[in-house]
Design goal:
The chain has a three-stranded antiparallel β-sheet, with helices on one face. It is 29% helix and 44% strand. By secondary structure, it is an alpha+beta fold. The chain starts with a strand and ends with a helix. The protein has one domain. The protein is built from two helices and three strands, in the order βββαα. The protein has helices spanning 53-62, 65-77; strands spanning 2-12, 18-28, 31-42. The radius of gyration is 16 Å and the shape is elongated. Strand 1 (2-12) and strand 2 (18-28) form a beta hairpin.
Length: 78
């Protein structure tokens, strides 16, 4: 039987950005036969409406107005 498993890893950076790694594994009889990786960054202020799971939960809690303002101010200076 072939199944698909999706695993997410979320890393929080000091400036509030979230690095998200999504690993999709195709399994056959309990053994991995293929895998793909997809990486993305969610910055404070990014729309997380279509995010799911842990990435969305962390973004909603961490990306406060203050953190968004600080991130924008820092990146305008750079």
């Amino acid at each position: 039987m072939i199944t698909k498993e999706i695993e997410k890893q979320v890393t929080v950076l000091a400036d509030g950005q979230l690095q998200v790694l999504e690993i999709t594994k195709i399994m056959e009889d309990g053994k991995e036969i293929a895998a793909t990786n997809h990486r993305k960054v969610i910055a404070p202020g990014d729309d997380v409406t279509n995010e799911t799971g842990l990435a969305k939960e962390i973004a909603e809690k961490m990306h406060t107005k203050e953190r968004k303002d600080a991130y924008i101010a820092k990146n305008i200076k750079d």
